[in-house]
Amino acid sequence: MHSVIASPADRRLSALIRHLEGSSNAMDSDTITASPASGFPGARNSVFEHVVRGPEDPILGVTVAYNKDSSPLKLNLGVGAYRTEEGKPLVLNVVRRAEQMLVNDSSRVKEYLPIVGLADFNKLSAKLILGADSPAIQDNRVTTVQCLSGTGSLRVGGEFLARHYHQRTIYIPLPTWGNHPKVFTLAGLSVKTYRYYDPVTRGLNFQGLLEDLGSAPSGAIVLLHACAHNPTGVDPTPQQWEQIRQLMRSKALLPFFDSAYQGFASGNLDADAHSIRLFVADGGECIVAQSYAKNMGLYGERVGALSIVCKSADVASRVESQLKLVIRPMYSNPPIHGASIVATILKDKNMFQEWTIELKAMADRIINMRQQLFDALSTRGTPGDWSHIIKQIGMFTFTGLNSEQVAFMTKEYHIYMTSDGRISMAGLSSRTVPHLADAIHAAVTRVV
Amino acid sequence: MASAMLSLASASPSASLSLQENLKISWKRGTSSRINFLGSDFSKTKSFTRTSMTVAVKVSRFNDITMAPPDPILGVSEAFKADTHEMKLNLGVGAYRTEDLQPYVLNVVKKAENLMLEREENKEYLPIEGLAAFNKVTAELMFGADNALIQQQRVATVQGLSGTGSLRLAAALMERYFSGAKVLISSPTWGNHKNIFNDARVPWSEYRYYDPKTVGLDFDGMISDIKAAPDGSFVLLHGCAHNPTGIDPTPEQWEKIADVIQEKNHIPFFDVAYQGFASGSLDEDASSVRLFAARGMELLVAQSYSKNLGLYAERIGAINIVCASSDAAARVKSQLKRLARPMYSNPPIHGARIVSNVVGNPELFNEWKEEMEMMAGRIKSVRQKLYDSLCAKDKSGKDWSFILKQIGMFSFTGLNITQSENMTNKWHVYMTKDGRISLAGLSSAKCEYLADAIVDSYHNVK
C-alpha cells in the first residue's frame, strides 16, 4: 500500500481494506482480485466496491417465500394491500370511472403541477380529514401540500420539522410501521419510543403510554396513528384519546398524525378522523400525513397530502413557503395522475357517495373476516382468549403468536405471515378462514 | 389549578412569565396528583376534570419561520399570468409549446393511456425500484439495447421521480458511500442542482463552462477546473442541450473531457433531460454518455421523460449507475432502494407504464420518434427565424450566430440582469434574470417582436 495523501479514492480503498479485514463472510473472487496495492483502479476495480448489499425487506421476503411454495393450500397473510373475497387486488369502480373521465378529457394537459401540488386536491383533502366545517380551514390556518402518499408526507413533514422546529426528537409508538424510524431519521430527527402495545392483554398499554409521553421533554414531536394502528390494530378509545390530548397539550407536545386508513378502519370517514379532529378542535397546532393508498385503492399512484394546522393564516402561509423549499430539491413537484383521480371523486357528490359505499364494503369484509376467524377458533375450542381479533381494527391483527408458532404454521400449513405474528385480514376469505383456524389451533396446542 | 390554566389561556405572549415557564409551573402542580392517579382507575379520577380546561398554546410553535423567497424559475410564470399586455411572451417556461403557444400532449401518450385503460390494469404498489418493464426499456434507450453493459447486467437502474428525483437518489447515495467526495457542477447550471446537493449534504464546487465573451464554451477553463479538483470527485455533465446555456461540447471536446476525467479517477454523472429533444435523434443525443460508457468507465446517468415524452407532471425518470461488475450493480441497486424507501416507499406507476408502453411497442416507438423530431424541428426553426430577425433588425454588425450554435430548448442570449429586466418591463417578455430564454415558448409569429426587444435591450440598456 503506497503512502499518498488521502484522496477520496484512497478513502474508498481504505474502506475496502477494513471491509475485507473485518468481514467474516467469504468474499467472491472478483473482490479479492481488487488488490489495494494496485495503484489507480483499472477497469476491473469498481468505485462501488465498498458498497455492501442491503438486506432484503422483511415484509417482501414473506411474499418471496410464498411465491416459491407450490402447495394449493398456501395463504399469503403478509400482504399490506386489500384483496377481494377471491383473493384479487381491487380497483374501485369509482376510481375506474374517474380515470376514464380524465383520460377521455381532451382538454387535459400534463404540465408541471405547482410545487405544492394540485390545488383542488389539497383543499378537498384538508376538508376530508379535518371536516368540511372545520374552523381551522375557515380561518385559513391550514396549509396542505400534495405529497407521495403517506411515506412522502411523513418525510416532507419530518424534514420541515428538522429544519424549523425547536425540538428535534420524535416519539414513535412501540411497535410501529417498520418504515417510520427510517423516514424520520433520514429526515434529520432523532427517534425515541413510547410504550404502546401490551402483549399480555394484546391491547393498549395506556399507563405506559401516559408515563412515557409524560416524561418526554416539552415540545417534543409525537407520532400518533390516527386509527387502525399498524401493526397491532389496537387503537385508544375516544376517552383515552381525550386524555392523550390533554396530556400532550399540557406539555406542548406536537402531534404528528399518520392517517393511512381513514374510512378503511371502521367504514366511516368521520369516525376514523375523530382523533385528529379532537386535537384540532382545541385550537392547537398539529401535523397530519394522509394517504389514499388503501381507502381509495390508489397504492401505486402514490397519492397523499401533508397538512399543517397552524395558529394563524400568516404562519400557515410562511410554513407553506418553507415546505416548498423541502420539496423542490427532492422531486420538484408531485405526480398528477392519482391526485386528479382523488379530486374528481371528492368534488362530485355522486362519486363521493359511491366511494363511501365501496369503502364501507372493503371495511365490512375485513370486519367480517375478523368475526369469522374468531368464531372458527371458538368452535375449535382453541385455548386462549382470542377476543383481540375482533377488538383490533383495520387491516392487521397482532395474533400474539410467537415466532416458533409462526414458523410451524408456515412449515405445516403453508401460512405466510411476518414473524412478529402479524396477519393481514385483507388476505383472508371465507373459504380460507377454516384453514387458518386449523393452523392457529395446531400451533397453539402443539408448539409452546 | 383551573384558574392558573385559565389565566394562562388569556395571557399575552408579553406576560411576565414566559409561556414555557407557565407550562412548567402548571405541569409541576399537576404532578403530584398525577402520580396518584396513574396507579388507579383513570376514568374515575377527579384530576382529569381539572385538567380538562387545558388549552393549547396561544403562540404558534412555528412563529419564527420566515417567508421563503419564490422560486426564481416558477416565479416568472406567475408574473406572466398577471400581465395583461397583448404582446406578452412567456419565455421562462421550460415546457414545450406548439406554434399556437399551447401545451402539447403527444399522440403516442394518449394512445398509450387508452391502451392502459382498456387493459384495466391494477394499481398495486410497484417494487421499491419501480416498474421492471420501464427500468429495462429506459436503460436500453440510454445505452443502446445491444450494449454489452446491459447484457452483462452492469447497470443498476432504479425508477425515479423524473430528473430531480433521480438526481436526488444519486446524491443520497453519494452522501452515504462517498462521504467527503464533492460534485463539480458547471457554471452556470440548472438552478435546482445546487439545491439538490445542498439538501443531500453533498459538497459541490463549480467548473468554468460559459464564456460570456464568446457566448460559447470556456473549454480550457472547464478542463483546467476538472483537473484541479481532488481525485475521485463526481463531475456533473449535461448529456446534451445544456441548461441554461444551450452550449454543448463537440464530440472531440467530449473525448478530451473523458480523458481528463479518467486521468483523475473522477466519476462522471450525466444529467440527461433532453434525449431526442435536442437534435431530434435519440441516439445522437445519447452519444456523450455512450462515449464514456464505451471506455469502460463507471458512471451515473439521471434520465427524465418530462420533455421528450411531454410527461412533465407524471414525474417519470430513472437513475442508472454503470458499474464495473454485475455484482457491484446489484449491490448499488439494493442501496438505492434503501434510500428510496424512506423517501417515498415506491415510485408512481402511471408515467412508468406510459413510457414502457411507448418505448416497448415498435409502432408507438416509431411514432414517438416522429413526434419528437417534430418538436425538436419546431425549436430549430424558431432559432433560425429568431436569428434571421436579429440580423435583419440589428445594423450594428453584432454576431448573433451563437443562437444557431446553441441547442435544445434554451438560449443564453448574453443579456445581463438589467437588460433582462428591460425585456420584461418594457417589452413584456418574461425570461429568467440570467438572460435565458426558452425557445419552446416562442412561436415563429413572435420572432420579429422578440428580435426588436433583444436588440433594444442589448444596445440601449446597460
From TrEMBL, chain A:
Pfam families: Aminotran_1_2
Membership in a protein family: Belongs to the class-I pyridoxal-phosphate-dependent aminotransferase family.
Cofactors that this protein relies on: pyridoxal 5'-phosphate
Keyword Isomerase annotated: no
Entry GO terms, CC: cytoplasm
Gene source species: Abeliophyllum distichum
Additional information: In eukaryotes there are cytoplasmic, mitochondrial and chloroplastic isozymes.
Name used for this protein in its record: Aspartate aminotransferase
Single GO MF descriptor: L-aspartate:2-oxoglutarate aminotransferase activity
Keyword Transmembrane applies: no
SUPFAM superfamilies per UniProt: PLP-dependent transferases
Family annotation (CDD domains): AAT_like
Keyword terms: Aminotransferase, Pyridoxal phosphate, Transferase
EC number: 2.6.1.1
Aminotransferase class I/classII large domain ranges (all copies): 74-440
UniProtKB/TrEMBL annotation, chain B:
GO molecular function: L-aspartate:2-oxoglutarate aminotransferase activity
Subunit structure: Homodimer.
Protein name: Aspartate aminotransferase
UniProt xrefs under Pfam families: Aminotran_1_2
Keyword Transport: no
Keyword Nucleotide-binding on entry: no
Note: In eukaryotes there are cytoplasmic, mitochondrial and chloroplastic isozymes.
Keyword tags: Aminotransferase, Pyridoxal phosphate, Transferase
Domain of life: Eukaryota
EC number: 2.6.1.1
Gene3D superfamilies cross-referenced by the UniProt entry: Aspartate Aminotransferase, domain 1 (3.90.1150.10), Type I PLP-dependent aspartate aminotransferase-like (Major domain) (3.40.640.10)
Family: Belongs to the class-I pyridoxal-phosphate-dependent aminotransferase family.
Entries under PROSITE patterns matching the protein: AA_TRANSFER_CLASS_1
Cofactor requirements of the protein: pyridoxal 5'-phosphate
Native organism: Abeliophyllum distichum
Domain named Aminotransferase class I/classII large: residues: 87-454
Transmembrane segments: none
Catalytic activity: L-aspartate + 2-oxoglutarate = oxaloacetate + L-glutamate
